Amino acid sequence: MSEQTSPSRLPHLLPRMVVLALLAGIAVSLLQPKVRLGELTGETMGTTWTVKVVTRGFRFGPRDEEKLKAAVDACLAEVDHRMSTYKPESELSRFNRHAEGTPFQLSDELFHVLQRSMQISDLTGGAFDITVGPIVNAYGFGPESRPVEPPSDATLAEMKQRVGYHLVAIDPATRTARKQRPDVYCDLSAIAKGFAVDRVAKLIESKGILDYMVEVGGEVRVGGLNHESRPWRIAIEKPADEGRAVHRVLGLTDKAVATSGDYRNYYMSNGARISHEIDPRTGRTVRNDLASATVIHDDCETADALATALMVLGPDESYNFAVNHGLAVLLLVRRPGDELVERTTPAFDALVAAGRVVRSAGHPADAR
Ligand code: ADP
Ligand code: MG
Q: pTM for this structure?
């Protein structure tokens, strides 16, 4: 005898099959852990921070979210306490006041960031240089109030004597730093936010959360996927003097992205744009056609510092530098008539082709 259901019995079985299918569907959806998107925000280093975490099941509730927010706040306060030039009692401010010649004992965090800063200075031929601080302050982009006039040539020439990353020697064996002049002054504003992002990412991962987005003042790092199980969508701003517009949205997973630009933090003086990016080699504020530089890297500290360095190098030198070092970079270059031209490196294009960076349209961004 055949085991097969005869076609004549099918109409009787159909309602039962429908009920079974519905029950199976309900069972599957009940068994599937609930996806929860937690969003935390706060303020640090004179800017804002956002963290998004995707959790599944009932493992992570509102109480855990509160605890995580407190832990993120504490982590960021610690970074600020080590690296702020705005806080006279920060570790960096104490180092800036320290006498020359005698070693200054560094915390693990400050040692790490100073050493990384020096490596990036070497790599970029001095385009990135944390000792540029006095000039940053003279232009009015530091803790002191803005001057009526930008610094004169004579003032800049004098200040340049104090600038040069070789004026700070770091000893990895003793974790100390030594200044070669008493008035050497370091400014970590171009790297500390990226470092803070990395620290928060590590903190979140230590809680067993692998799907997350961390953003501090526009520098971003993502892990895993967003709540829709898609790459996180990160908006690259369109450089504009007023308002905020999106140039492009990148889909990213397990990467950091940082952007530096001449369009957010600047003022006009005698018709010239005085940007907060300083060329340490000339001591002058950066003036070139590069409107913004976006770097995608494994860690945010490197992405942050390199984005600043690329702004200094300008459109052509930075493009060649990024290509030669295999960096994933997107540049927006100003052309006459307010036109913006996008230039991407082969490493950036390869990420796009591999689906790590997805040209994303029609979806709101998770971060910008
Ligand atoms: P943002 O702080 O807007 O993200 P950046 O990461 O490019 O922008 O950092 C710019 C800040 O870094 C400036 O405000 C200044 O304090 C400091 N800075 C400016 N030029 C340099 C440079 N060439 N190397 C290192 N730090 C710099
Ligand atoms: Mg930077």
A: 0.90
